[in-house]
Amino acid sequence: MTRFKHILGLTAILLSTTVPIVARAGDRDRANVAISEAKGKIDAGDKVGASTQAPELQAQAREALMSAEAQLANGKKKDAIATAHHASELADQAITSADNRKTASERDRRHDAQDAAIAAQASAANANARADNARQSVSDANGRADLAQQSANAANMRADASQQAAVNATAQADMMRNMQHPEPAPSTTTVAVTEHDSMMASAAPTHRRHRVAHKRAHRMHSKTTTVTTTHQ
User: CA 94: distance to chain centroid?
Assistant: First the structure.
């Protein structure tokens, strides 16, 4: 019994001396694990752009990691564990912030693209409207030109009709004037010119054998020529 008590006493002494050693060894391992975990998260944050999207948090996580490594090197294992855990938390926050900012940036980019598309559509619609207005203006101008040409043609026709009416009126006035004051009939003067052929007796030659003298008679012809002279 005494021997058993002695063995228990030795065991107790051994446990009292070995437990702190195991505990100390466990704290170092936990500190190393915590530091390694913090390093992995910080490296992951660098890969997803935390250094640019959340630079302040990423820098704080890196500073906390360096502090944890320094504390472990100085034997402050529990402090190193706590500081390494804080570094991991900061690294997680940096990754989350980077993701949120990237998501917001992507959302803003999509919104900007949508706004640009809407603006482009509106600009195209305005351009089409201006083109339609221009075409309508040209059409209206052509319509006004056609109306002006029609008006000119109508004016020319009225002018021709007025001129013809004036000619007709002049002709009617002349006819009425002639009916009221007829012109005298033209006078005709007839001049008769008479040409006469007369019979003339000529003495016959005297022959010695015959004493009787014969007279040769010449016929006188009469010819009448009528000359008509008309006077207005």
Answer: 51
What are the two backbone dihedrals, phi and then psi, of residue 158, each rounded to the nearest 5 degrees? -65, -40
pLDDT in tens, 122-168: 989 989 999 998 889 888 889 888 888 998 898 888 888 888 888 88
Cα 132 to chain centroid, rounded: 8
**Which pLDDT tens digit goes with each residue over 39-78?**
999 999 999 999 899 999 999 999 999 999 999 999 999 9
Which of 64, 70, 69 shows the shortest CA–CA distance to 94?
A: 64
Helix-strand-coil percent breakdown of the chain, rounded to 5? 75, 10, 15
Question: Please, what's the b/e burial string for 162-188 (b: 16 or more CB within 10 A of its CB; e: otherwise)?
Answer: eeeeeeeeeeeeeeeeeeeeeeeeeee
Cβ distance 76 to 42 under 8 Å?
no
CA atoms within 13 A on the CB side of 87: 29
The verdict on pTM exceeding 0.70 is no
The answer to whether the CB of 99 falls within 8 A of the CB of 52 is: no
Residue ranges covered by each domain of the chain? 13-118
| Alpha-carbon span 67 to 35, nearest angstrom | 10
